[in-house]
């Protein structure tokens, strides 16, 4: 085996680098102590041995080829070589320096190597961490705004572009306040001061987008510092919570509305009691008065006019109170129907019977048409009566003496249709939809002659709809009005029929009540 000069060996062996000499591309010439330590063996274990003793077959091929090239080209070159030492893969970076003899031929290679395993591991770690950060930064569903310690923006991710509308290029170098609403500047300053003092880094404030629209964001801020604790960057992460805040506000409003509605219901329940008690007292006193006067022949006729005025106006008040309470209950969903299976034909006929005389006294030509004998449907008779009486009362209210009122009941497909048509003033097209809204009356000046509160139709519509039906209006202004109630033919399973409880007699007071508005016409 070729040897190196002893004085050179001294230098070589004490070199602070893993070093070896190759006289052939495939065999070690000499190795220094550092190399022996690296390979966990003695210098003599490697000296003159084939390089295959520390390389796997794949790596051997590459290294052999590389060494041959340096021998052939005579040029200094660097290579990274992977080798297994004590079952652990290590990586060295070798600086291969060819030595030329006096004839200019390469007679050996001086190889100076460095163990870069740890460095590579760190590099890999760093690479992965950077990659991870870039991937989070790019794809996060949160806006990332990176700024320097003077709050100049230095980076900005896709989500930030989406939320604030500015492209990255447009904001680099701009102050962070570019995206802060003026009235939130102080909040941002507080946040940054807090972060610098290592305190709370969370804040919600009003931001402003490129198009000037305002949005609320939840911000979390962190500092990136160097080894000397000097602040390098501020990372601010934002989530657009405008929608959340909107929903919270809506819930709050709804809660307040609900509370207000509850208050309103309680108020109306109280007021209804307060209003009905004196009315009941008036009615009972009236009854006694009527009774007393009936026994005094000479007095009876003298007071008739006054008594009926008190009674009628009492009924008007009672109807108004009832309607107001019910419309309020409907508004807050506390109005309930008491439905059962009833014969709707019998019910309508009872109403017709109880109102016929009355309408005659008003000189209206009242016609009733029905080719149905009986039809049981699920309904609340008390409330349906109110609806029908209200429609008949309106028909009287908006007609003149001699006009015609036609009440028809028929079966169309799977529905019962009750229609009330009059040849009165009719309703203009533009008013046909609004009359079903609460408190709406058409042409106030005209209506002064006709009493009413504008609640009747809205209540009627709600009651019919609560029956699963609908109410429709057809009219030609100045010619006629026709209100049609469509009720589904269906029954409630468990209920018994109670139709017999409803007779014409029991309706008399209700007719007076519902017609109280028109008694003065
Ligand atoms: P009101 O208690 O004022 O009668 P309604 O809700 O019953 O309240 O009716 C609302 C308005 O609809 C009435 O003021 C009137 O302008 C119009 N209206 C209702 N029925 C008729 C009808 N048969 N003919 C013409 N207009 C009517």
Query: What value does the average pLDDT take?
Result: 87
Tell me the number of structural domains. Answer: 4
Uncertain runs: 496-508
Spatial order of strands in the largest sheet: 6-5-9-8-7
At CATH's second level, what is the architecture of the largest domain? 2-Layer Sandwich
CATH topology call of the largest domain: Heat Shock Protein 90
Estimate the strand proportion: 15-25%
CATH class division of the largest domain: Alpha Beta
CATH-level-4 superfamily name of the largest domain: Histidine kinase-like ATPase, C-terminal domain
Q: From the helix content, strand content and strand pairing, which structural class follows?
A: alpha+beta
Helix content: 40-55%
**Based on DSSP secondary structure assignment, what is the total number of beta strands?**
16
Give the end-to-end Cα distance, rounded to a whole number of Å. Answer: 138 Å
Major beta-sheet overview: 5 strands, antiparallel
Cα-atom Rg, whole angstroms?
50 Å
Small-molecule binders here are:
adenosine-5'-diphosphate
GO molecular function: ATP binding; histidine phosphotransfer kinase activity; phosphorelay sensor kinase activity
Catalytic activity: ATP + protein L-histidine = ADP + protein N-phospho-L-histidine
Keywords: ATP-binding, Kinase, Nucleotide-binding, Phosphoprotein, Transferase, Two-component regulatory system
InterPro entries: HATPase_C_sf, HATPase_dom, His_kinase_dom, HisK_dim/P_dom, HisK_dim/P_sf, PAC, PAS, PAS-assoc_C
